Amino acid sequence: MKDLRMVIKVLFVEKKDIFLSIICGFIAGITAVALFSASGYLISKAALAPPIYTLMILVASVKMLGIISALSRYGERYFSHRGTFTMLSNLRVSFYEKLEPLAPAIFGKYRSGDLLARIVGDIETLQNFFLRVFYPPIVLLLIFFWTIFFTTFFSFTVSLVLIVGFLLTTVFVPAFFAWRQSKVEWKVRESRGELSTDVTEFLYGFRDLKIYQQLEGKEKQLSKSTEAYLQEQERESVSNLFSQAINTFVSLMITVCVLAVGSYLVYNGQLDGIYLAMLVMISLTVFENTTPMAIFPSHMQDSKQAASRLASVVRDEPMRKDADKKKHVQPENAPEIEIKNIRFTFPDEIRHTLENVSLKLESGSKTAIVGPSGSGKSTLLQLMLNLFYVDQGEILLNNIPINDLTEESIWENTNVVLQANHFFYGTIRDNLQLAKDGMSDREMQETLIKVDLGHFTLEDPVLEKGDNLSGGEKQRLAIARAMLKNAPLWLLDEPTSSVDALTEEKIYQHIFEKANEDTLVLVSHRLTGLEKMDQIIVMDHGKVIESGTFEALMNRQGYFYEMKMIEQSVFLGQ
């Protein structure tokens, strides 16, 4: 129930629709009972050949009740569905507002298909919380209260039978199925998440599956996920239909009891026979409102599981400071970065990715971070961008902890080139304009020339994810985007790994000219061209093992020296 409080809180944003749904639902239900009871009384009364005006009044009353019932039922559907759609909209916005600050770190914990299933499927499931769980019991209670109160004026014994039927169909039978369902772990939501994940991976990896001829195996796995999901849906549907059948059977048995008790009372002279048909019609009609209670436990369980799956995404994540408590800083010059004894571990991993890392990057300095693959270089760069949470220690930007800064104030003052850069469907111009507003076509075209993409025009198309670009072209386009932004901090992660040596040298020349007075951090596997760096940080297994200038590290003949010698022997054949 704790997780459902979030849903109830969002639900009560639309109090007006809730109250109108309850009022219209009550009027629709009580007028339906009155309509059929009046019809039963009319049939009985007509058999006694009363005055014509009596029948006219009864017929007019039946018509009026029919019109009121239809209009109020329409009002109930209108206000309940409007409230539901508004609740779903508010819930999506509320969940996204909590989810958005956790990206991209959240993708390390949840697979994209599972997240999609939660954002779409589980929120969609919660539409039944209001329509099937929240307000129907309130409406049902009001209808039964006034129906039983009305019935006592004609027969106290029949009203007791209705009370017993009310308790059976709205309390005991649903409670039994709720207990029964608690014994069974419904996996519809989990299997839907697994199916969504398998479909996403199948579509993303379709090309590689075709190349390696593993398409058939993946299709079988996808078929198993589909079959498992369908089986869970079937189990749930059978359970719901069975509970509805039992509830309907019990309500019909109550009506039979009302007929039997009423007949006995008429026989003994304790009840006027003209009211017997009316009481039977009351019983038949009022128990139609108990049908939603038959599947109440199922929808309640669904809502609890959906709310729990949504809450689990944001509940266990470390909470950042409120945005209004953070500082938005616009540095006047190149920032200084200090990293103090940080430790970081990716979710569900035992091995520390970074352990006790400390370093200082002076304002306007040029720093290279090198080391073997998996040493934590890229992770350290992403921590500087505040994309992940450190487990221990802190990172300071101009002597201010980055957790005290808004993410926007960090990102808007940083030129970033990561190993994987996203390119949107559109044109070269569209993808360059992400850098900043107000750029001229001439400025963009000149930057393309600097990164050796002068053969492109700004109108050239870019397919989804840049599929029509080579690896080197993607990297150079990302570098052009960073150069156009022209912020005082540069964070470059293997920006030219897919570029030939001559083009790489040309690009770095333009970058260093552009970043002459800026703070620059370069992550690289290549050790050539690092002589111009102010300091080189050497990492291995998540730790800093050496640091210093190129000359100092070579004279020390340590780990960096060995790496440099190996590189020369491989690429120069020495």
Total individual domains: 2
Radius of gyration: 35 Å
Strand content: 5-15%
CATH architecture of the largest domain: Up-down Bundle
Weakly predicted, low-confidence segments? none
Intertermini distance: 70 Å
CATH topology of the largest domain, what is it called?
Answer: ABC transporter transmembrane region fold
Percentage of residues in helical conformation: 55-70%
CATH class of the largest domain: Mainly Alpha
Let me know the number of strands: 12
Provide the spatial order of strands within the biggest beta sheet: 6-9-10-3-11-12
Strand count, sense and barrel status of the largest sheet are: 6 strands, mixed
Mean pLDDT, all residues: 85
CATH superfamily caption of the largest domain: ABC transporter type 1, transmembrane domain
Overall 3D form: elongated
Structure report:
The chain has 574 residues and is α/β, with parallel strands linked by helices. The chain has 2 domains: 268 residues, ABC transporter transmembrane region fold, CATH 1.20.1560.10; 162 residues, Rossmann fold (3-Layer(aba) Sandwich). The chain has 21 helices and 12 strands. Strand 11 and strand 12 form a beta hairpin. Helix 3 runs antiparallel to helix 5, helix 4 packs across helix 8 and helix 8 runs antiparallel to helix 10. The model has no long low-confidence stretch (mean pLDDT 85).
